[in-house]
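Q: What structure does this chain adopt?
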Amino acid sequence: MARLPDPMMSPTRPVRILIADDDPVVRELLTEMVEELGHQAVAVPDGIAALASIAAQPPDLVLSDVSMPGLNGFELCRRLKADPARRLIPVILITGIGDEFKIQGVEAGADDFFAKPFSLGDLRVRIRVGLRMKAFTDELESAEAVLCALGKSIEAKDPYTEGHCERLADYGVTLGRALGLGQEELQALRLGGYLHDLGKVNVPEAILLKAGPLTPEERRIMERHPQVGEEICRPLRSLQAVLAIIRHHHERLDGSGYPDGLRGDAVPLTARVLQVVDVFDALTTDRPYRRAMPQEAALEALENESRLGWWDPRVVRAFGEAMAGTRPPTPAGRGAARILVIEDDPTNLEVFAALLENEGCQILTAGSAELGLQLAAAERPDVILMDVLLPGMTGYEAARRLKADPATAAIPIVALTAQAMRGEEGRAKAAGCDAYLMKPVDAQAFRETLRRFLPPREGPKDRPV
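A:
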């Protein structure tokens, strides 16, 4: 049996352990113990500060007290395990409130428990075990990353499909949430966005990039790609939930799809989700033979095809509602600055809308980072105002993606945070944010910050073509 890498001996970087405890004496004790083990310790006083630290730089392991003011250890763990990008970070809860609370910890997703008062020797062992498991899951994630990169390399062969994988991952997760799917299914949809066409690695480029209609033999080769993709991913146990998406994303509910000709509910729900977002993305992007459709026309086309029996009407309807779940742009004068506000709290949205309308701005809003990324790419706003603690993907992660994309890298981002903790400005800058504001916002500070980034208002605004 292959020996797992020992994280205690990592030559690349120090192991980073986050300590969350409102007792300064315990924080100091745990910090000293972690540093004696040769690891980097980051200590914070509560759950909110822990979430901010994790968003800025994910740790390898979390040691958290249960009873903390504001956000307790159970809720911290629950939020961490609900985030697909962070759910594999081991969490050890340290509690002095009795064994009966272990059930609550298990439900929150904790990986281990430790009672106060604790033995430092025993805790060292628990940390070592947690880090070994993290090393193992990192290896699995590396294998997934290689396959996702392969999927993107297939996409890159066709300039008309640039960004297709990322868009499908974001659309799929957004639609999955609208349908009330669980975290495992949402993670499968995220990975399915990257891996659904992996089997095209077996399709010759002459067929893959052919501008005209395929011959019957060429079509037979092309229609093998879902099965080939499934065969490539099947050996990885961590991808079992994705296999149905890969194999069945070209099925149709009336049985006219491929490779298995499934009908109705025999088509897995996650595959039905990816079918819809895949068709939508194809309709709303340019192709050699046609221009991209407007969003409304693409949604209407999906509804018409669902009436023909191709797609699940409930899924199509939910997607239309999810895509319409952004606040419509507010009317503004010619040449008005266009501001995208990414914020999940309706009350805060109304506050920002009022402030921006007073500045004569046109406002677009999104309630999640995923929808915000889509709007930013499509609308190219002048400024983005983004909450840090968003459901699912955090504001800091979204900022990193926006700054890594040449199409949106130049858009100024103002982070919105309610966390008055030292180092928050540094975390915002490290994520690529150009400024940050504390919530509740001061109206004067808001105006001054916004005006730093607003372009001149005279004349019509050039729009990207």
